[in-house]
């Protein structure tokens, strides 16, 4: 074997598992495997998970915080305006450099698959070209999936639909949209129909920024679900944000949840961003704004947590750590039961992997040999500690390593120096 990871605890709780890797694939997984590895890693009972997956990101904007100025109000609309100011100043090389730096951060945190929206409203399609180049460069270690995203509205912004078609022709993977930003509810619904029909014709996936507002009457998710059914696109469509669901009438939601589930439409919440951008027109009490995550999960909908932004016009924090995203999601959704906390871990691993349609994701024999050894004993502990990534493996190769976190204390009045693992 090229590599054997010994004594792993898996996300489902199985422990004492060895994972044998050959030619970039998992050859075997089970207790006390007899195969020897050219390299062996002792997980020592730590959690070994398939890589983190971010289902919702904006790599064309990342690490641009402060360019050309910071977002003073911290609101979504000032962020969109600021992005509009920055767009004409974007230079391809600088954009590639920032995205590559972010991808380095991502790998070190075991984040090996990212779906990034890319704004296609700049007629130059400069960001599209840049991120296609980034996708090519990082392909050995990150699956980067790109969404053609009409930030200014596919109908509202003249020429946006042509730009979107050009971007798809250049190799962008997924059709995006932003119906709540169109001028009217009717235009929003029309944009959903137009974009879904285009995606269906081309056999593409759809991921729309949908109802990212506190307006309980913003109901484009209903149209998205119905179009998905009408066009037979079940399992290939996602609604991102869906924050208006937070404010909707409960009776309406009781109709909406089964519709979303039956349509096979996935939901992507972005807890770090939703908790900071939503509820901005409220005094007190302030709404959290995140969509109804546990209710969607209970209805059988695939729900992922996305990072959305890292140091960009909308958000000045973040580091590519999907455990931070899961930690925030867990708190905002009040998912504090043991099973619910575990589901939050799956919302940054297995669920987004299904939404992206990643082939060979998992730790079963035959899967790609992509995995992360965490400095934690379980999925819940991983979230609690935002655990260090001890080893990150991609296609059987170690791409990042870090020592186990340990602190040495030598305190006056204590009997002896101690070396301990923080929080464990
Ligand atoms: Fe977004």
What's the quick description here?
Strands 6-7-8-9-10-11-12-13 form an eight-stranded parallel β-sheet, sandwiched between helices. A four-stranded mixed β-sheet has the order 3-2-1-4, with no helix packed on it. The two termini are 32 Å apart. By secondary structure, it is of the alpha/beta class.
Report on the structure:
Helix 12 (338-346) packs across helix 14 (379-385). This protein has two domains: 3-50 and 362-422, Urease, subunit C, domain 1, CATH 2.30.40.10; 52-355, Metal-dependent hydrolases (TIM Barrel). The protein contains 14 helices and 18 strands. A hairpin with an 8-residue loop joins strand 17 and strand 18 (418-420). Strands 6-7-8-9-10-11-12-13 form an eight-stranded parallel sheet, with helices on both faces. Strands 3-2-1-4 form a four-stranded mixed sheet, with no helix packed on it. The chain is of the alpha/beta class. Fe (ii) ion is lined by residues 56, 58, 117, 209, 308.
